[in-house]
């Protein structure tokens, strides 16, 4: 209920200020479970990706969003609850398996699960290698996967910028459902999981027009941070 209250309040305001646009809504089924697999450019994706859809989109978010204290923590919990985020532990190992089970439960209940295969926001607006958790979810749940490409949200609100820029129209493109039924029963095969994930990322590249980078976004962020530290200290990286 809180999700729809937040959406009813935010939607008219966001439409008035940012004039968002959407393409391909007809590809998103009106009922039944599905996975919306999207690129992740900005914090603003939480708003504009689900905004055009008449269905609630549930996403998985790091538990830290829900554990803060004081007024800031309260506002954070209220916001992420309002945009349909379910807290998960992203520390890896058993926590990753628990996150997978949470996603499967959401799908078994007939909901729409929004997921960002890159695992984190793009540091530079390019599309990075997807993690195979989305493939396991798709094969174990046997639900359709809809590519979900955000447009212009990086330019409007890049990582590290707390406020969006005005004058940039954010958009979202929904692609045709991807059918992976030929791989059902093969969710333990790592090569199959990589093939499914890469097919999803290729569909996102086609929709978004982004340059693809064959490395994980988290690794790219580490490299960029190291380069920034070296530049600040005048250190030459080893060859």
UniProtKB/TrEMBL annotation:
SMART domains linked to this entry? PlsC (SM00563)
Which PANTHER family does the entry link to? 1-ACYL-SN-GLYCEROL-3-PHOSPHATE ACYLTRANSFERASE
Keyword set for this entry? Acyltransferase, Transferase
Record domain Phospholipid/glycerol acyltransferase: where:
34-153
Q: Where are the transmembrane segments?
A: none
The protein here is known as Lysophospholipid acyltransferase family protein
Which organism does this record belong to?
Answer: Sphaerisporangium corydalis
Coiled coil, from the record = none
Pfam family example for this protein?
A: Acyltransferase
Q: Does the keyword Transcription regulation apply?
A: no
> Which InterPro entries does the entry mention?
Plipid/glycerol_acylTrfase (IPR002123)
Which domain of life does this protein belong to?
Bacteria
Q: Name one GO molecular function term.
A: acyltransferase activity
């Amino acid at each position: 209920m809180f999700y729809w209250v937040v959406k009813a309040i935010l939607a008219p305001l966001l439409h008035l200020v940012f004039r968002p646009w959407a393409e391909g809504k007809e590809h998103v089924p009106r009922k039944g479970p599905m996975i919306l697999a999207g690129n992740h450019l900005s914090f603003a994706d939480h708003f504009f990706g689900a905004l055009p859809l008449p269905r609630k989109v549930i996403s998985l978010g790091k538990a830290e969003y829900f554990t803060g204290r004081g007024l800031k923590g309260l506002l954070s919990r209220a916001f992420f609850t309002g945009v349909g985020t379910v807290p998960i532990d992203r520390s890896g190992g058993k926590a990753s398996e628990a996150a997978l089970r949470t996603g499967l439960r959401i799908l078994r209940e007939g909901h729409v699960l929004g997921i960002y295969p890159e695992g984190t926001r793009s540091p530079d607006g390019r599309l990075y290698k997807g993690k195979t958790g989305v493939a396991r979810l798709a094969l174990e749940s046997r639900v359709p996967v809809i590519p979900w490409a955000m447009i212009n949200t990086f330019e409007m609100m890049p990582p590290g910028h707390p406020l969006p820029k005005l004058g940039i129209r954010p958009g979202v493109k929904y692609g045709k459902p991807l059918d992976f039924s030929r791989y059902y029963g093969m969710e333990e095969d790592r090569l199959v999981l990589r093939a499914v994930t890469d097919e999803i990322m290729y569909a996102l590249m086609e929709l978004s027009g982004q340059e693809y980078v064959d490395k994980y976004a988290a690794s790219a962020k580490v490299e960029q941070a190291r380069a920034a530290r070296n530049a600040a200290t005048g250190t030459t990286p080893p060859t």
